[in-house]
Amino acid sequence: LHVKRHSFPTRRSSDLLAQGRADELLSLLCLARPLNAGGATCPLLLAPAMNREMWSHPATQRNLAQVVADGAVVLGPGHGDQACGEVGDGRMLEAEELRDELIAFFQPKVLAGQRVLITAGPTFEAIDPVRGITNLSSGKMGFAIARAAQEAGAQVTLVAGPVHLPTPRHVRRIDVKSAQQMHDAVLPLAAQHSVFVATAAVADWRPASSADQKIKKDGSGRMPTIEMTENPDILAAVARLADRPYCVGFAAESHDLARHARAKLLRKNVPLVVGNLGPATFGRDDNTLLLVDAQGDRELATADKLSLARELVREIAS
Ligand code: CTP
What does pLDDT average to over the chain? Predict the structure, then answer.
């Protein structure tokens, strides 16, 4: 990585690389690296850092296109304030972003060319303008799967209920609140995807009607009766599509995990159900998963959610 942040580079690495020049140490190292020595290649990743005019100049873009054609991978650049005081494209990605890009680069591309649709988080079913019914799902598992699938080369669409999580890099995110909104967002997209992973903790019921104004106490000491109606089952609806994607369900249970997970596999007619104990994992950074399919049950031992997500992605790919 060539990091020149607060000074104007007199010679840009991409220009030297484009010409195959080796008149300074860095470009020499890049030129001398093995491209295919007995199968061993040394990838080259570039994180450009320059003024927006330099970045957009045809000469820079021409040289960049050349180094990309020669096999280099370009990370960023970002957009925003520049050392010179201007604002625009050309900022080096932040260090944490570069770290995540590097980690992603080295993941096996087992889902290259695939499109993956994921639901995540809880849903929120409004009772009135200030109250609603929701659950303790944090969305962390679904967001981890979105990141892992993207790292594995997939194009990922994430339909998220109300959660406080940053969107994984290069993932398209659609925010929804209620189960009905999640259903309406997912159904038209499902057939364009090859894999659907339903991690969302979708509320099973919603108030039959949501009050326009806050419901006030009536002095009787009794809570008003709220009539409930069942929400659509998003996973089952996707699994019924004629051109359905490969469907993965989650089963969040409080007990009898294997039995309930297998029942859901059959009831929702999906090839894979991933069981976990909801109360033991909601909001936490780690989890234990039980994979249930036609072959049997298999446990993925307790680990952080991103590691489990990567294992699950490999499983789905195979
Ligand atoms: N699911 C869904 N839409 C719903 C309910 C559930 O898409 N309305 C999906 C979940 O995202 C999960 C799977 O179905 O992938 C199982 O969800 P879960 O809440 O564990 O099961 P339920 O179908 O609600 O069954 P039960 O109430 O018997 O536990």
Answer: 92
